[in-house]
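Pasting two entries for a bug report.
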Amino acid sequence: MNQAVDALAERAIREHWEFAPTAGSRIGRHEYDGRLPDFSSGRVARRIEELHRSLGQLSALPASDGPATDDETQMDRLSRSLLEMFLRRELFNLEEMRSLHNNPQRQVGYIGVGSYVQRDYASLPDRLRSATAVLHQVPDFLATLDGLTEPELGEPVRDMAVEAYRGMASFYRTGLAAASSECAAIAPDVVAEFDAARETAAIAVTEFTARLQARQTLPDFAIGRDLYRRMLQVGEGVDTPLLDVLSIGQANLERNLRRLDEAAALVAPGKSVREAVAQIAANHPTSDALIPETRDMLEDIRQALINHDIISVPSEERCQVTETPSYMRYAFAAMDSPGGLEEIATEAFYYVTPVEPEWTPRQQEEWLTNFNYHTLQIVSVHEVYPGHYVHNLHNRYIGSGERRTLPLINRVATSYAFTEGWAHYTEEMMLETEYGRDNPALWLTQLLEALVRNCRYLCSLGMHTQGMTVDEATKFFQAHAYMEEHPARREALRGTFDPGYLNYTLGKLMLLKLRQDWRRQEGSDYSLRRFHDATLSWGAPPVPLLRQAMLNEPGDAIL
């Protein structure tokens, strides 16, 4: 990498971690453990000055020399563009989107200490000391947020923030109890301080939640067209006009609905889509078999990647399939991969949420239908093979255990659309291979997952740029993703504070177009595995930047 750009990137990233030490800690730089950000107005103003200064210094540096086809030159150019977008994205969030002022839900993650409990990078007493240090800072952190948060918030944004902070207070009191018990015999003094700190922090969060609840609300929560356009431009490098983005998403929804009817007719001839779905849902693991059968399924999918030459699997490491921790059981299943710079706690966890013993037999059966074998396959493709987990392996290894050396900025500056788009893309891609071909039940299940993401895409645009209400978005999910009212409303509410959740489908569509264009360019040298390995070799950059690196004629990312 260009040494001047490299030095500027390292300094800019250190400044970012000093401003948001939680980000440094979670990526694997444990010297930032135990610290919360200072979001006081003076510190934010200084951070804005730092960002403007770094952008000015970057623009003054000469461009990389070398032929456009040279891999090293392409990496230099991509990394420089990544650094610029990294700086502009943070500046956009602070100056234009202003989420510190109008979206308190976005800050709840800073006060989470689950990673200290879960990841074994140091002794448990040392990790609890770091968690305790964070908990001690929670009251002051929330007091600062109180002063920043606008007196009136969009009603659904306020309500979702209230729910999130209530959940965090509960997590402090109950979700951390197991770690406290585990450490009690080893370091009772550490545990005593930890327990006192988590109760004090829980009280502070509860009081902050009450103050949030008391704030006035506005009916309008939309960020508006200008900010939405800027969000796509600055965050993902997408300059496509919003009406074109909308029409592309609508066309993909209609295509998937047609294909869903075709798949349902193959699964359950003469029956409705809902009847076909119910037929698939009835075939699921038992409660006791859920974890071991998921583990076996992962091995089958992993072997299929190798047998069918779909993608390189650059390590013999396996993720650990385990029950979802108590504080995360709102999730159906989730991948917890190590941070991009983690050197010690490199284990990865695939969390699968079991039935709870206090549930009735009917509730347990209803939950397990969500884990029917075909849904479990699609979710495992997305989360593990070849989705998020394999992406993480490619960022860490070249092959046979050899460590990959990506520029620091490529490890730190990741794209929402690439990260989630890649995982979502793999669901559809696996249906094209020998692994998933001619399996209508798996096809139908994958399409249902795609339709949820289609609705996120269109409801995000609708609610933030077209005047769609939460009620209208709820009905949209019900009508087009075959969801019941409660989960449909939850999906709609998420879009009020996370307009970027269109990125699952947006990223997938951009990757599909990149594959099509790269295949045309490579001709007889093209293979699916070559495309996948090349795509993951750059980190997780915005797809338009990836196109500039991989294609001789980049063109538009989605048109």
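Entry 2 (this is the one that rendered wrong in the viewer):
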Amino acid sequence: MAPDRSVDAVVVGAGFAGLYMLYRLRQLGLSAQVFETGTGVGGTWFWNRYPGARCDVESLQYSFSFSEELQQEWEWTERYPAQSEILRYLDHVADRFDLRRDISFDTRVTSAIYDDAAKVWRVETDGGTTITARFCIMATGALSAARQPDIRGLDSFAGKWFHTGRWPHETIDFTGQRVAVIGTGSSGIQTIPVVAKQAAHLTVFQRTPNFSIPAWNGKLDAAHQEAWKADYAAHRVSARDTRSGILYEYSQRAAFDVTAEEREAEFERRWARGGANFVHSFNDIFVDRAANDVAAEYVRQRIRALVTDPMVAARLSPTDHAIGTKRICVDTDYFQTYNRDNVTLVDVRATPIVEVTPSGIRTTEAEYALDSIIFATGYDAVTGALGRIDIRGRDGIALKEQWATGPRSYLGVAVAGFPNLFVITGPGSPSVLTNVVVAIEQHVAWTADCLAEIARRGAATIEATPDAQEQWVAHVNEVADRTLFPSTNSWYMGANIPGKSRVFLPYVGGFGNYSRICDEVVSDGYRGFRFE
């Protein structure tokens, strides 16, 4: 069938990645069409409207750097931006650069099939539209495929239920209700303190406790923001050379290079500063279990001091994983919330959920009467959104089949057998271990430069070679194995999704190192890629 339309590039997703990709495609003089499932821009920040939703990277860093005018004109209001402020920012970006005219909203891409003979991608949507493009760019996001657990009886529940990753656009008032929150990862830790202040009673169902550091969030001081903006360019350069793309204070000392008193003082200082910077207190926390243990024990001591009931404090204290090997959480009054009379903590590892009943939730030990249930159960991270699209490369090979035993990519941006397909912050790139906006800008810029190189060479396609891909996968695994990350069953490993292969998904070698590798690949004539 003839396509409805042809363009140079199709982009899937209109979050941070899709918006910047569209901007760069226009700079190259290429025609583009963006497809977005939501009814507006924002990606993750369009969908995650749950109570307390907030970024765990400081606002002055969690923002675009490609436009100096944009950097200077936007005024952030808080140290850590709330979901609503980030969405306003992305709406502003879309309007400022007139991006909406090339975005089809409320449109889900169902398939992207490569036509080897014509050397184009044939992209189909749920509305029946077919579009062909030379380039297919997946800006689908690492945390966009919400994971709804399969719990027996949910359809029978007489009340209302919600998922933090697909929150309604209207305000939900839980005043006077009996509410359950299932899950104590980042979204649960943000939601619980807010809902506890509204609900008549809140029951938290926890499988695995998580380490969390106080945010100490507050209004941004105008003088601080002005000083930061005066030196924005230098801040950005410095951040890109760090492990996580964030201007943290990265310690140059090992944990046992100092006395016990000095260690304690350093943990105290980091705790008082707040945020994920805590896990960089010493430079061996991610690689030495003994160093990690002393950092973890400091946080457990803090939990015991904050939570008045010793049994509850014990349940909230993680002991089954190294601190930082699950995404470190940043909170506002999370642990203190369990001191409230209207909050109950249920350990579902000890007493598993059996089913949802018409009137609530039944565990192996008790039944809890509820009016509303909130699932804070996370995402099929990094690869989940790609797996929900039928993506097929040369000879009709499905990406889902090729990744059945774990994702394989070259640099996290290209896949052998899938010409002219680019994945922004895909598996095998730093992505979720970094300030994702910095990671996105690097990937988009690299992709845009690659498209310019294709034009310069007069080539039709670019494709990663199988050998380069295998070498990169081996390198990603080798670097991960030098750390404590693979020792933990986390969503970094795909462990939260039943049946998903256990593979460490992001690149843990550091953002600065990764960027240098990408630059070296280019300077070496796009080593590991084949042009046709």
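Dev reply: Rendering is fixed now. As a check, the viewer should reflect this: Residues 436-457 form the longest helix (22 residues).
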